[in-house]
Specification:
This is BNR repeat domain protein. By secondary structure, the protein is mostly beta strands. It is about 0% helix and about 45% strand. It contains no helices and 85 strands.
Length: about 1100
């Protein structure tokens, strides 16, 4: 069991394996990066432990509690550098703790009371090891004190002791760990503001410290300087502690609470304090607890989160600021596996790796890229997709995904894409056999990857200089390990040289040394890594064309190598063969190096530059080379910088990007090719979380996990699937992972394998579900919709089925096709009420069908021709059961008629039959109840076009009936068919799809065949191979296939439904740029 909660998440040191947020309703934060694993919340900051052992932090950084080496606050998660192999984290008031797999403890942030345990009271902005402490298994952090549980069951404490919270019998603070006397066999800990709680192996609870509100479970004393047993409490497995209240979780899933209750945080339906433990009513099957200052969170076994107490910052996540005296569920949360409560905010971790947050966001502790107003509901903060790690080479690009895989595209002349070939790639392809990667770097034609085990891997060009570090000058088409190099925490790649930073703060270099860029005092090339002498305490690196930069822990910058344009910043143009300090520059927190210029980001959010400036790369408004650092004017609040060949980029805390310098290829993204001597904002680009500037192109990662790229595309390095230049940001191709597609009259939908829905095209009725009515020429995510298993698109509305059996709809609802009892359209998904247990669905243009797990069919929407099958022609705003139909396994819905496939292989039809589409041999105007289609059995799949129907039999043959004016029956004629006929020449079919005037069939060999309205084809023709799924719509078609789930589209693109930026008609399949 992991901790429990800690006020400021103190009660529950790391997440009470569910966590908390501070916004009155959970916000899912899309933070690219590693898979989230554990969480912890401090007073105004938050911590996340990645599955790869890295730590990420965001929020207030006044005391250095983010561990970034600075005191610059961050509203989005940033990695704590130099810290790996971590297995647990805990956030105190303004400090942080981390437990590594070797049992050592590391601390950083506020140290005014000695709570960092390093025997000083000096604040630390980078992690320092707590000396004399080993074999630790868990941690807890209070306001200004720390607790550690060792493997022998003893508890160690340090920091503030004004209330006896160190448990040593005194009120003397301690700047280094000391054991809590007389306390053994402890299995769980929690730390409140000024008190501590521990669980022993016998299930008994002990507490000490402040008792001003009865939080120790004993009203007889104001405080206890030594542990005292909490009476009347047994069978406990974990605890949590808030400001002045305590919580305990029983082995039976029950919750017990005691202490202060001024805001109802004990969940007792009152505000009366409890001086001994009382059982929380109505709360069972709880698996984890956590406590904020005046609120409490509980995680239940069903993945829901329940909250009680103060809510003035929305910390209960229920969409209000009303306090709750009893526990109630946090709205919109399911599948939660961990919780953490900060002072007034909450964090939760969902089973799909998403982190959600809510409540107070004054210091950006929710991690959504903003700071200020609280969020009353959950926000998504961290998305397990792309890590936020990008790298750009001379004519190629690299991206790191959250699963630790590397993707590459662009020029591959020297094998720098690492795919074993020298074939250029115009869309992302995975670098094979390379996993668990945490960082990337790209030189002119070589690539570096850092794995979580501290090893470095290299591939690409190696001629002459040995920049791959393997002791040879042989290029490598696939990654190879750089030998004898371990414990690495960062890498950098210059044009033809490489750098690595080890965890001990030393720097290692190899490759080209023509200008002294390896820093060894010579100009001798090195094909294997060696340590740069006299350079220690380094926390970050950057490599330019032929110069190198290092940032030391004291905030100073050191430079060496080529200096013809002053890029070393020492006021001269003399090259340096060994590192020398850049004078008059301090408080630096990040570095970037271009071909011949350098940039730094200072802790005050300002950017400084020097070196080559003929085209404005320094950004000071002149074209004059700068031999010493100058501030980039009018640019503040910056959180990241990147330097390209001769252009520069800066990311501000608000997610906006600014660029300056060379723009010959449109690499500034402002829609022009005009060079800029001072920063200009890249228009229409928000929510950016990471950036990378290449020699002639630029790339950014957005909070939704998508990539945008612009500039030179000569080798396809923008990942757009072509090689045309782009002077404004464009969505990169690939990394799509689509599993199914569907299309409406002018819009398209794609379901990704992670259960998210993406939409594009016409949006006049809100059918894209993104909260707007703005058409989208490229896919956008449907927000707040996860765990989706199936999609359907009507003419102007969309449907999604979630894994919990719930059905959601959005877009046009004029005929009641949502089934929500109204005819009110919606630009965001709304749940279809009173209909649960749905297993599949079908959407006609204006009506909807749903199959429930009991084999019954339900219908709603337009019913002019009886297509709802309820015996009437009355349109329905809510689901009604289709009469006399059971044992159904599949459905199909067309404009005015409906089909059902039964488990016995028979097909049933109802609705309009004026073109013979009901297959009963008649031209029936309106059939109001289902009728079996005669003469066809053994059917395994069905599809319905506007006025025709298709059936796939178990022998792989296709049968069709209805309107055939455009050849949509596929029998070689244009003769209408009132009963099923076989489509000749088509066998081994596995799936069907039908649209208004055309039909599609997918064969077992992955080939896709089409016939019908196309000008027209009355027999099947081959369209595409490698297909796994498809959808036919009124005027366009979609297909998904390949190992990466890429989507292809063709036909009408009037509304952008092909995901193509150019309107028109496309007679051949083109790839949809789905991120």
């Amino acid at each position: 069991m992991l901790g429990a909660g800690c006020a400021r998440e103190r009660s529950n040191p790391e997440q009470a394996l569910p966590a908390k947020t501070e916004q009155a309703r959970p916000i899912a934060q899309a933070r690219p990066g590693v898979q989230a694993n554990r969480i912890s919340a401090g007073a105004w900051h938050s911590l996340l432990l990645g599955s790869d052992g890295t730590v990420w932090a965001w929020g207030d950084n006044t005391h250095g509690q983010l561990g970034s080496g600075t005191t610059l606050s961050r509203p989005i998660p940033v990695r704590v550098p130099g810290l790996s192999g971590v297995v647990a984290v805990a956030a105190g008031d303004h400090f942080s703790l981390a437990l590594r797999s070797d049992g050592t403890v590391w601390a950083w942030g506020d140290n005014s009371a000695g709570q960092l345990g390093d025997n000083t009271t000096t604040d630390r902005s980078s992690p320092v090891q707590v000396p004399g402490l080993s074999d630790v298994t868990s941690l807890a952090a209070g306001d200004h004190f720390s607790l550690a549980l060792r493997s022998d069951g003893t508890v160690w404490a340090w920091g503030d002791n004004g209330y006896g919270q160190l448990g040593d019998g005194s009120a003397t603070s301690r700047p280094s760990p000391a054991p809590v006397p007389g306390l053994t066999e402890v299995v769980a800990l929690a730390a409140g503001s000024f008190h501590a709680v521990a669980v022993r192996s016998d299930g008994m609870v002990w507490a000490w410290g402040d008792n001003s509100a009865g939080q120790l479970g004993d009203e007889s004393v104001p405080f206890l300087a030594s542990p005292g047993k909490v009476p009347s409490l047994s069978g406990v497995i974990s605890v949590a502690a808030g400001d002045v209240h305590s919580l305990a979780l029983g082995a039976d899933g029950s919750v017990w609470a005691w202490g202060g209750n001024g805001d109802g945080q004990l969940g007792q339906s009152s505000t009366d304090a409890a001086f001994s433990p009382v059982k929380v009513p109505g709360l069972s099957n709880v698996t984890a607890l956590t406590a904020g200052d005046v609120h409490s969170l509980a995680l239940r076994s069903d993945g829901t989160v329940w909250a009680a107490g103060g809510n003035y910052s929305g910390q209960l996540g229920d969409g209000t600021t009303t306090r709750r005296l009893s526990f109630s569920p946090v709205s919109g949360l399911s599948g939660i596996v961990a919780v953490a409560a900060g002072r007034y905010h909450g964090l939760v971790l969902r089973s799909d790796g998403y982190l959600l947050s809510w409540g107070n966001d004054f210091q950006g502790q929710l991690g959504d890229g903003t700071a200020g107003a609280p969020s009353l509901s959950a926000l998504q903060t961290f998305q397990p997709w792309i890590r936020g790690v990008l790298a750009t080479g001379l004519y190629y690009s690299l991206a790191l995904r959250s699963d630790g895989t590397v993707w590459a595209w662009g020029n591959n002349y020297y094998g720098q894409l690492g795919d074993g070939t020298t074939t250029q790639r115009v869309s992302p392809s995975q670098v094979p056999a390379l996993s668990s990667v945490v960082a990337l770097a790209a030189g002119s034609y070589h690539s570096l990857a850092l794995r979580s085990d501290g090893t470095v891997w290299a591939w690409g060009n190696n001629y002459y200089y040995g920049q791959l570090g393997d002791g040879t000058t042989t290029p490598r088409l696939s990654p190879i390990q750089v030998p004898a190099l371990t414990g690495v925490v960062a890498v950098a790649a210059g044009s033809t040289h490489s750098l690595a930073l080890r965890s001990d703060g030393t720097v290692w270099a190899w490759g080209d040394n023509s200008s002294g860029q390896l820093g060894d005092g010579t100009t001798t090339h090195r094909p294997t890594p060696f340590q740069i002498p006299a350079l220690t305490g380094v926390v970050a690196l950057a490599a330019g064309g032929a110069h190198s930069l290092a940032l030391r822990s004291d905030g100073t910058v050191w430079a060496w190598g080529h200096n013809a344009y002053g890029q070393l910043g020492d006021g001269t143009t003399t090259q340096h063969l060994t590192p020398s300090q850049v004078p008059a520059l301090s408080g630096v927190m990040a570095l970037a190096a271009g071909a011949y210029h350098s940039l730094v980001l200072r802790s005050d959010g300002t950017v400084w530059g020097w070196g080559y400036n003929a085209v404005g790369a320094v950004g000071d408004g002149t074209g004059t080379h700068r031999l010493a650092p100058v501030q980039v004017p009018a640019l503040t609040g910056v959180v990241a910088v990147s330097a390209g060949g001769h252009h520069s980029m800066a990311l501000r805390a608000d997610g906006a990007v600014w660029a300056w310098g060379d723009n010959f290829y449109g690499q500034l993204g402002d829609g022009t090719t005009t060079r800029r001597l001072a920063p200009v904002q890249v228009p229409a680009l928000t929510g950016v979380v990471a950036l990378a500037a290449g020699a002639h192109h630029s790339m950014v990662l957005l909070s939704d996990g998508t990539l945008r790229a612009w500039g030179s595309n000569a080798s396809g390095m923008l990942g757009r699937g072509h090689s045309d230049y782009e002077s404004a940001p464009q969505l990169a191709v690939g990394l799509s992972q689509a599993s199914s597609v569907s299309g409406g009259q002018g819009h398209s939908l794609a379901l990704r394998s992670d259960g998210t829905v993406w939409a594009w095209g016409n949006n006049a009725s809100g059918q894209l579900g993104d909260g707007t009515t703005t058409r989208r020429l490229a896919p956008v995510p449907v927000p707040g919709l996860t765990g989706v298993t199936a999609l359907e698109a009507g003419a102007h509305h969309s449907l999604a089925l979630r894994s919990d059996g719930s059905l959601w709809a959005w877009g046009d609802n004029q005929y009641g096709q949502f089934g929500d009892g109204t005819t009110t359209s919606s630009a965001v998904p709304v749940q279809v009420p009173t209909l649960a247990g749905v297993v599949t669905l079908a959407a006609g243009p204006y009506h909807t069908l749903a199959l429930r797990s009991d084999g019954t069919v339900w219908a709603w929407g337009d019913n002019y021709y009886g297509q709802l099958g309820d015996g009437t022609t009355t349109s329905r705003r809510a689901p009604v059961q289709v009469s006399g139909l059971t044992g159904v396994v599949a459905l199909a819905a067309a404009r005015d008629h409906s089909l059902a496939l039964l488990a016995d292989g028979t097909v049933w039809a109802w609705g309009n039959g004026t073109q013979g589409q009901l297959g009963d041999g008649f031209y029936t105007y309106s059939r109001r109840t289902p009728l079996q289609v005669p003469g066809i059995t053994g059917v395994v799949a069905i599809a319905a076009g506007q006025q025709h129907s298709l059936a796939l039999r178990s022998n792989g043959t296709v049968w069709a009936w209805g309107n055939n004016f455009f050849g949509q029956i596929g029998d070689g004629t244009d003769t209408q068919r009132r009963t099923p006929v076989q489509v000749p020449g088509l066998s081994n079919v596995t799936a069907l799809s039908a649209a208004a005037l055309h039909s599609l069939a997918l064969r077992s060999d992955g080939t896709l065949w089409a016939w019908g309205g196309n000008g027209s084809l009355n027999t099947p023709r081959l369209v595409l191979d490698g297909v796994t799924g498809m959808a036919a719509t009124e005027s366009h078609a979609l297909a998904v296939g390949g190992p990466d789930g890429h989507v292809h589209a063709w036909g009408d693109n009037t509304h952008g439904q092909l995901g193509n930026l150019q309107a028109g008609y496309y007679p051949t399949p083109g790839e949809v740029l789905l991120p």
